C-alpha cells in the first residue's frame, strides 16, 4: 500500500524558511515522479512543484519559482520542499503526491498534508 | 498561469446526473488531452478520479465519466449518491511545462 507522510510544517514568521519532508513507502520510490500541491485555508488546490523519478528535472509554479526548491533522496525514499522568503500568502496545507506512472504526471496518491502558517 | 474556470457550486438529488464544466485556454486544455479530475471530501486529501480526460484509475466507480472539446472539459457523475458530496477539481498540464488546477466546484447532494 502506498503511503506518503508529510512533516516539517509549523508556524513561521514572514521572511523565514522551512523545509518540508515527505516520507514514502509501499512502492519503488525512484521509479515515480513526485509532486507538491498546496491548499490555503478555505481555498482551492494549487500545484507548486514537481520532480522526476531520478531527480534530474524539476518544475515550479511562477508563484514559488526562485523561493522554493524541490529535491529528493531516493536512498531514503524521501521528497523535500525547501521554502524560503515566506509570506502570508504561503500559508497553506502542503500535500505531497505520487505520480500515476508515465508522463505527464497525474497525482495518483496523496499524503494527509502538513500545515504551514506564516504570520508575525 | 491563471486557474482553470469551474462553477463554484452544483447540486443534484440522489439518482440524478450532474455535469461540472472546466474551461481553459489554448495553453492548457486546448494544448493537449492531459486533463485530470480530483475529488476532495471535507477534511480529506484529494483523490484522483479521472485522467487522460476520461480514464478511471482502478477502483473508481464507472459513474464518473469525462469528456473534452477544445478548451472545455466536463465531468459527469451519474446516479448521484450521498457520498459523492465533495469538492471537485480539474487539472491540466500546460504548454509551459506546469500544471494548473481549476478553482474547484462544491457538489451538494440534496
Structure description:
The complex is a heterodimer of chains A (120) and B (110). With 120 residues, chain A is mostly beta strands. Chain A contains no helices and 11 strands. In chain A, the strands form 2 sheets. In chain A, strands 2, 4, 5, 6, 9, 10 and 11 form a 7-stranded mixed sheet that branches. Chain A has a 4-stranded antiparallel sheet with strand order 1-3-8-7, with no helix packed on it. In chain A, a hairpin with a 5-residue loop joins strand 4 (34-39) and strand 5. Chain B has 110 residues and is an all-beta fold. In chain B, strands 1, 3, 4, 7, 8 and 9 form a 6-stranded mixed sheet that branches. A 3-stranded antiparallel sheet of chain B has the order 2-6-5, with no helix packed on it. Chain B starts with 8 loop residues before the first strand and ends with a strand. The model of chain B has no long low-confidence stretch (mean pLDDT 96). The chains are: A mainly beta (120), B mainly beta (110).
Amino acid at each position: 500500500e502506498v503511503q506518503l507522510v508529510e512533516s516539517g510544517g509549523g508556524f513561521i514568521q514572514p521572511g523565514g524558511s522551512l523545509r518540508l519532508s515527505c516520507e514514502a513507502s509501499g512502492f519503488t520510490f525512484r521509479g515515480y515522479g513526485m509532486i507538491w500541491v498546496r491548499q490555503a485555508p478555505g481555498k482551492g488546490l494549487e500545484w507548486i512543484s514537481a520532480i522526476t523519478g531520478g531527480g534530474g528535472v524539476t518544475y515550479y509554479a511562477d508563484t514559488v519559482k526562485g523561493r522554493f526548491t524541490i529535491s529528493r533522496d531516493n536512498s531514503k525514499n524521501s521528497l523535500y520542499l525547501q521554502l524560503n522568503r515566506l509570506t502570508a500568502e504561503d500559508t497553506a496545507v502542503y500535500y505531497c503526491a505520487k505520480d500515476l506512472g508515465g508522463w505527464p504526471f497525474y497525482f495518483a496518491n496523496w499524503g494527509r498534508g502538513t500545515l504551514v502558517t506564516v504570520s508575525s | 498561469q491563471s486557474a482553470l474556470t469551474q462553477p463554484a457550486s452544483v447540486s443534484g438529488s440522489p439518482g440524478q446526473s450532474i455535469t461540472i464544466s472546466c474551461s481553459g485556454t489554448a495553453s492548457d486544455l486546448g494544448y493537449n488531452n492531459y486533463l485530470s479530475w480530483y475529488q476532495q471530501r471535507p477534511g480529506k486529501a484529494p483523490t484522483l478520479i479521472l485522467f487522460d480526460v476520461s480514464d478511471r484509475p482502478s477502483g473508481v466507480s464507472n459513474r464518473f465519466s469525462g469528456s473534452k472539446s477544445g478548451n472545455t472539459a466536463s465531468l459527469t457523475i451519474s446516479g448521484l449518491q450521498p457520498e459523492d458530496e465533495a469538492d471537485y477539481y480539474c487539472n491540466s498540464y500546460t504548454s509551459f511545462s506546469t500544471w494548473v488546477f481549476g478553482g474547484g466546484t462544491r457538489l451538494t447532494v440534496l
